[in-house]
Amino acid sequence: MKNSEITFFRTLFIISSIWNLIGAIFGYFNTAKTFETFFNRELTDPLIYTIYQGAWGTTLVYFIGYLIVAYKPLKHTGIVIVGGIGKIGFAISLLKFYLLGLAGPVVFVVIIGDFIFALLFGYYFYRIYKSKESIL
Known about the structure:
The relative contact order is 0.14.
């Protein structure tokens, strides 16, 4: 893989990291307000609160994970596989919640953002495959 591509992917994963940090700041550190903004209802159940905050905790962990990938993009592909699956799954779940009338239109910020990152992660794997880089 060319140095310019490595630089592109490093930049991509730094931006991915920042995207996750922004989400985590809202979702993990201001859990009830984020829930209310997404779902147009107050978060009063302590169990749901803890589960919802934990989901955003995963987002916070991936902030660190994508920084690790940015450091060595060809070495840490497993983080990208799992993170990409998470982005697609979370975006699909939010879309389902919206279509069921359970979430407001603000969720499209996350849906669109996560789908864009998932597509770029797909391109990352395509370029690794085409350049015949070893990821093991």
